TrEMBL record:
Residues 1-60 form the HTH lysR-type domain. PROSITE patterns: HTH_LYSR (PS50931). Belongs to the LysR transcriptional regulatory family. This is LysR family transcriptional regulator.
Amino acid sequence: MNKEFELLRIFRVTAESSSFRDAAVRLGTSPQGVTRAIQRLEQHYGEMLFHRTTRQVRITAFGEGLLEQVRPALERFEDLWRIPGADQQASLSGTVRITAPHSLGTRAVLPALERVAARHPGITLDVRLSDRVSNPVDEGIDVGIRVGFMRDSRFVARKAADMRLPIVAAPRLIKKVGVPEGIESLARLPVTAAVDINTGRPWPWHFKAGHQWTPTSPAFIADNADMEMGAALAGIAFAQLADYMAAPYIASGKLVQVLEQEGPPAWGLYVYRPQRGPVSGRVRVVFDELRAAVGSLPVLR
């Protein structure tokens, strides 16, 4: 079992690295050793795990699926191996800088940091909410939350939850204009548009099989997800929202989900650290609490 475990550990590190050479440096071995380990796994599964070129390696679809299974198993082992009380033995004082999207501020970040503050009053919590894509390393971020697959090899990322993207509207709007029969019919209905503050353009709506649709004549435009949800609750327009926002209102009947059969696959919600290597106790505490809080967000049943 030790050999199999080590092969999977090498695979995870390689998947989070830019190349076999980068993975070898992080593992303290040779690129040839990494190559042999990946080849053994590929022979075992009968599938390619990486597309290789002379310049780079890129994980395959099968590899990504395997990585999603391997990560939690290895993380569980790491949790079990951690010395009890190790975090408490460290100096739990100093500043931890956290970043997350605005929509997760009061829903996940604040509940997590309330627990940190109650247990460790020596930690100063510096929160910077932003929907802008930035460089966490340059900004001195210690812990962050991000939507989507984490590929940056500098980061330590742990998937905390899945996020679905339902299309919703208030019952009174549906009574007034009807239910969309398909994606194309959305163009004839009042919809919201979420502005991507990185580009100034509307975000596309996402559907199954990678299909996207971008509102061209929206009834409501916002650069804040809670404003967009407010427009849906007010009966102004249909909106595509994260399920951790919409699920409680769908359960209460204040919002109705439509086009359920067209929904895209779930996206991952990741808690990450921009820096590898030894981690201080204060950062570990915040990281673990954020991960637990994101894992407790409302979901669609």
